[in-house]
Design goal:
Blueprint (H helix, E strand, L loop, with lengths): L1 E14 L2 E6 L2 E7 L6 H13 L3 E2 L5 E3 L7 E6 L21 H17 L4 E3 L6 E16 L1
Parallel strand pairs: 3-6, 6-7
Antiparallel strand pairs: 1-2, 1-3, 1-8, 4-5
Helix pairs in contact: 1-2
Amino acid sequence: MIALIQRVSEASVTVEGQVAGTIGKGLLVLLGVEKGDDEAKAQRLRDKVLGYRVFEDEAGKMNLNVQQAGGGVLVVSQFTLAADTKSGMRPSFSAGAAPVDAERLYDYFVESCKAKEIKTETGIFAADMKVALLNDGPVTFWLQV
């Protein structure tokens, strides 16, 4: 399971002209699910995402996690994160989880974030989404479990 996280001042996702999810300060989480991923991996990744210290404290050091900074998370499914790009000029998606498994684990990840009492917004699984963000920093990290 993969999360590409970006510290944002604001982010939103729009589907068919309608805003599906929006946050102010927080993390945009692009989430990719691979074959063999399970709920245990989803929990470990959730803990890593929510615990990762990427927000500045009063001394200006990246020392606060998203909850400590008072932010939210916008979770967007992104199967392309599971792409194999090692050879050729076209990505292979053979490492990606089957859509039914990916959606189940995406939903599980989202619900487990909400269970931690953090504002959690989403896109719509498998939809053609337009993601807008104001990257703060820029600060971007690739997290994988």
